[in-house]
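Why do we care about 3D structure at all? Because function follows from shape, and shape follows, mostly, from sequence. That is the central idea of this module. The next example makes it concrete: a single protein chain, its amino acid sequence, and then its structure expressed as tokens.
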Amino acid sequence: MVYFEKSDALKRLPKQFFADLVVKTNAAIAKGYDVINLGQGNPDQPTPPHIVKSLQEAAANPLYHKYSPFRGYDFLKEAIATFYKREYDVSIDPKTEVAILFGSKTGLVEIGECMLNSGDTVLMPDPGYPDYLSGFALANLNMETMPLRAENAFLPDYASMPDPLLDKAKLMFLNYPNNPTSATAPADFFEETVKVAEKHNICVLHDFAYGALGFDGKKPRSFLQTPGAKEVGIETYTLSKTYNMAGWRVGFALGNKSIIEAIELFQDHYFVSLFGAIQEASAKALLGPQDCVRELVQRYETRRNAFFDAAKKIGWDAVPSQGSFFGWLPVAKGFTSESFFEYVLDKAHVVLAPGVGFGKGGENYVRIGLLSEPERLTEAIDRIGKLHLFD
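And the structure:
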């Protein structure tokens, strides 16, 4: 058999850090241990029944058995605009300011090829969602990091970034509520972001994947609520977290018309949009009863409270999550994030995600997922507590 070389673009793709964690986790399970996996980021609840029923009914429509319109059905784009007006009081033109995505990850990966050229500079939060790097690699971009530090509430400090770097940057990624730190962003930070983007001509992409998941009665802000935001960037949203539709692969981008047009043009050459029945069910999710979303947020908040209360009792001090379904905690003294992961897995059979997997700025932290019921979360803490790491 002839061996054919991969393209240079594929060779540039980063190594999947978490693949090794999966191997180690599965090895512990294979030994017969009762492993509590808090390292995952996959919603654990099913899609609400009324959304599933919508798909089942729509799937029988022969219209949807044909190719969908290249850029998606108008009724879904109109539902998205209605959703944003209702939830954030943001006016969106469904014809020119919305692009339907195969999950928001697709938009995050393809934006570099849509808007930048080889060698251009992109700003990435550190720590940040690792899959941003895939898009940078495929487009052959130069990445510069924006440190997210606890003393600055895990927000980029624009004042500490030199003008030459900002002048060179063509694209900036932001993500609030944040993965992995679970921090949220206030209005004045987004206002400053718009000013920086205008001054330095930077395209902003705000990843709003966890937009529905805010705690203590505080609803996360959309970047598009900020005056001038649509002049400088876009926001991506996904139904994966809000409606437990991760496997449905439905997301969208909204905002600046020129960026949306670039995304739609790019996708014209890759896709013929989503299955029409999925689009119809997605529209009904956005426009239908939202009790399921409120119940989901309360479920995650209950889990958060149980986990962090238990952690406090064993001396594991950390700031409770502000949003998302993650927690961000410091490792015990004397450990790196990876050695802490390995020790806790080996001794307590609990899986944590090492912070260094999200960038150098994640060293000395671990991320946990609030994706188990409170009893299981507190059991994980009880097991870690017996190791006396925080005495």
